[in-house]
Specification:
This protein is an alpha/beta fold. It is built from 10 helices and 7 strands. The protein has 2 domains: 226 residues, Spore Coat Polysaccharide Biosynthesis Protein SpsA, Chain A, CATH 3.90.550.10; 70 residues. 47% of the residues lie in helices and 11% in strands. The longest helix is centred in the last third of the chain and has 31 residues.
């Protein structure tokens, strides 16, 4: 099969028939074999009834219905598990993503050798309250991830080589960082295409401003796990050791200062009367705790069954070492 189109949705019953007809028209005009996977994320309207009706009319339409609302990332991950196309296209169900972009996205994957192509809605029909935070968010994501050529990490319209979606796990709210997840999995050929953004035709947006706060927290999580996920001692152990050493030196200085003043006849105070003594003790305790955190992290990693899971691109004339 040429293309799998994955459409996560929540309360988008009005737009689904138009979207399915639009995708079908594009596919037939270009001679693609395809499937459309509608992932109903616990909609409370008639979205699932519409999907069942579309599936009855076309064998290319498939669907999954969650019992409750889990979020976009679980919906995408469910689609990635079930898709079977050589190229995977993800798009939103609100008709703001244009299916007319699919042929060029497909060509960029199959002919230009990209692993992932992300859409860039260069001209957006969103209010400033959404576009300005989005620009700040994307600038931070580019800096942290090192993927400097992407302008819109969170664009729902993306194309993937099949093996990319089979080697990444999208969970929580990590759909915002799929390019970063792909890069961490070893897929570095990431491109971008300017795509047309349409004003919302039905319903209203399902996302609030809280997604920007959560987005930064998720980005910090991804950065840490990518850099220190299999070697936590390198972070916690180093930071803890530095804090302990600085605290120990500070305590030594406080004690040495008192002894010096005692032997030279100068006024002095008890060590326990100095605020620096308690600050030093706090640093030593925190340093010990951070070191132990790194140590426990290393024990967890050491006992993980995935500690030696490495992404292998190709293999020639080798064995796995098993008898």
């Amino acid at each position: 099969m040429d293309i799998s189109v994955i459409v996560p949705l929540y309360n988008e019953a009005e737009s689904l028939p138009e979207l399915e007809a639009w995708i079908r028209r594009v596919m037939e005009q270009n001679g693609f074999s395809y499937e459309i996977l509608f992932i109903n994320d616990g909609s409370t309207d008639s979205s699932w009834d519409v999907i069942k009706s579309l599936s009855d009319k076309s064998p290319n339409v498939k669907g999954v219905c969650f019992r409750r609302n889990y979020g976009k990332s679980p919906a995408l991950n469910t689609g990635f598990i079930r898709e079977s196309g050589d190229v995977v296209i993800t798009m939103d169900a609100d008709l703001q993503d244009s299916p007319d972009e699919i042929p060029e996205l497909y060509r960029m994957i199959t002919s230009e050798g990209y692993d992932l192509v992300s859409g860039w809605k260069q001209k957006r029909y969103d209010p400033l309250s959404k576009t300005i935070p989005t620009k700040l968010f994307n600038a931070t994501a580019r800096k942290v991830s090192g993927i400097t050529n992407l302008h819109d990490f969170n664009c729902g319209l993306k194309a993937y080589r099949n093996k990319v979606v089979k080697h990444i796990e999208v969970y929580g709210d990590m759909h915002r960082y799929i390019p970063y997840l792909a890069k961490n999995a070893g897929f570095n050929r990431i491109g971008e295409k300017v795509v047309h953004h349409q004003a919302r035709k039905y319903g209203k947006t399902k996302f609030g401003l809280d997604r920007f706060v959560n987005g930064y927290l998720d980005l910090a999580t991804l950065w840490f796990t990518a850099k220190f996920g299999i070697k936590p001692m390198h972070f916690f152990g180093l930071l803890g050791s530095l804090m302990f050493i600085l605290g120990f030196l500070a305590v030594a200085i406080v004690g040495a200062t008192k002894l010096y003043n005692m032997y030279t006849g100068q006024p002095y105070i008890l060590v326990t009367d100095s605020p620096y003594f308690y600050l030093s003790l706090v640093m030593m305790i925190l340093g010990t705790q951070l070191f132990l955190t790194g140590f426990l992290g290393e024990l967890i990693v050491r006992n993980s069954h995935r500690r030696n899971d490495y992404e292998i691109e190709e293999e020639l004339n080798t064995t796995d070492g098993k008898a």
